[in-house]
Amino acid sequence: MFCYQCEQTAGGTGCTKTGVCGKNEDIASLQDTLIISLKGIAAYAFHARELGARDEQVDAFMHEALFTTLTNVDFDLNRHIGLVLKAGEMNLRAMEILDKAHVERFGAPVPTPVSTGTKAGPGILITGHDLLDLYELLKQTEGTGINIYTHGEMLPAHAYPELKKFPHLAGNYGSAWQNQKTEFEQFSGAILGTTNCVLIPKESYRERMFTCGIAGLPGVTHIKDRDFTPVIEKAKSLPPLPEKAGITLTTGFHHGAVLGLADKVIAAVKAGKIRHFFLVGGCDGVKKSRNYYTEFVEKVPRDCVVLTLGCGKYKFNYLDLGDIDGIPRLLDMGQCNNAYSAIQVALALAEAFNCSVNELPLSLVLSWFEQKAVSILLTLFHLGVQNIRIGPSAPAFLTPNVLKVLQDNYNLKLITTPEQDLKEILG
After folding, report:
1. Is 247 domain-assigned?
2. Nearest to residue 371, comparing CAs of 94, 51, 27, 50?
3. 233 and 260 housed in the same domain
């Protein structure tokens, strides 16, 4: 453990074995888990509030949970476990209100092919997660001759009817967050960062990068009140992008779209044409061990379907997995918050087959990295989902005892090798 939140901390530097207050490493671990999950909940609730949606229970829980982590408030391991699971419940509510707010404002996503090439002419690249920022940018660039490109978790924006109606939403450029220093350097236009997943820029593109909303970077112009005039003027002054061909990615398999295929999916399962579903998603990252997820999807048998979401999909979303009776074998459900869509699909399938989610031919193989992923994992625990595999390594804030509780109660597992995990899942 490491805690330095009070004045009495050991040696004036930090408590590392047990707290001066009396808390042990397991309580400290659960408090860290709770605080980290609150960050993820805050991200989804923030976006929902921007669109006019809020949930009083989520707001109240944020206060309760933070208060609980103060010094000398709660030393009970079971109460902390209960709060951590309640965080999963509140995150589910936050994702639900955000999903509804997105659909009400921008329409229900539909499967949409997206080009990864560029068009000749000036361009602006937008990264992050905020669809409202993208919508305002698209409105303000209408008729200017500037093409707008999405990056990272903005890829699913192409599937929303109110966003895809803009003809100058030209395509998706680049991949996940960790590659942006190389990708942004090679992009000749202006760049706009809207939320998390931005990195401190290289000098080579700092003067043509901007932030807005919650995001901020040193030495980078910050846009206020969504007045993107400086971004537009910078894009006009920069060298135009070349005409360049790219591959096509397909996104937009929101739960509404997937459930529209429910009859075909159920028939294919009953006919033995679909043996198993895999949800392979989460965060991307720099560790070479994350190549596991590419290899896993490549090795998934052809009678199986892969659902994905989050930026972890960039490890394999360029693969052509084909289809089963017209059902694509790779279904990109959207951003990390669209884990809500995956949950809705799982619940609907469980109802159709008259079984529990844990009895479905469905396995979750998740890539962990940042705080929102923790919130989603806790949501799955709140729903009682078992046999989840996470990787490439366990979060550092989980003590062996806390990890054991999760393993004993939910059969949480760390990934091993694609071959071994597939053999264990499929038999």
Report:
1. no
2. 94
3. no
Spatial contact of 406 and 356, defined as CB atoms under 8 Å apart: no
What six digits make up the tokens of 194? 């809207």
Statement to judge: residues 405 and 257 lie in one domain: yes
By CB atoms closer than 10 A (0-12, 13-18, 19+), residue 250 is middle
Mean pLDDT calculated for residue range 204-229: 98
* pTM listed for this prediction: 0.96
Percent of the chain with pLDDT over 70: 100
Binding residues for hybrid [4Fe-2O-2S] cluster, as ranges, are: 129, 153, 197, 283, 311, 336, 370, 372
* Residues 40/372, Cβ–Cβ less than 8 Å: yes
Band (370; pLDDT cuts 50, 70, 90)? confident
Confidence band of 396 (pLDDT split at 50, 70, 90)? confident
* Residue ranges of the binding site: 3, 6, 15, 21, 129, 153, 197, 283, 311, 336, 370, 372
The answer to the question of residue 43 being in a domain is: yes
pLDDT of residue 310: 96
- The token duo for 381 is 């625990």
Q: Do 407 and 269 belong together in one domain? A: yes
CATH number at 88 reads 1.20.1270.20
Domain containing residue 313: CATH number? 3.40.50.2030
Domain of residue 88: give its range.
10-106
Residues belonging to the binding site for [4Fe-4S] cluster are 3, 6, 15, 21
DSSP state at residue 325: T
User: Which of 87-91, 311-315, 385-389, 393-397 is least confident?
Assistant: 393-397
- Report the domain count for the chain: 3
d(CA 191, CA 199): 12
* Locus of tokens 């997105």: 102
Residues 258 and 211 in one domain: no
Q: Are 87 and 218 in contact, with CB atoms under 8 Å apart?
A: no
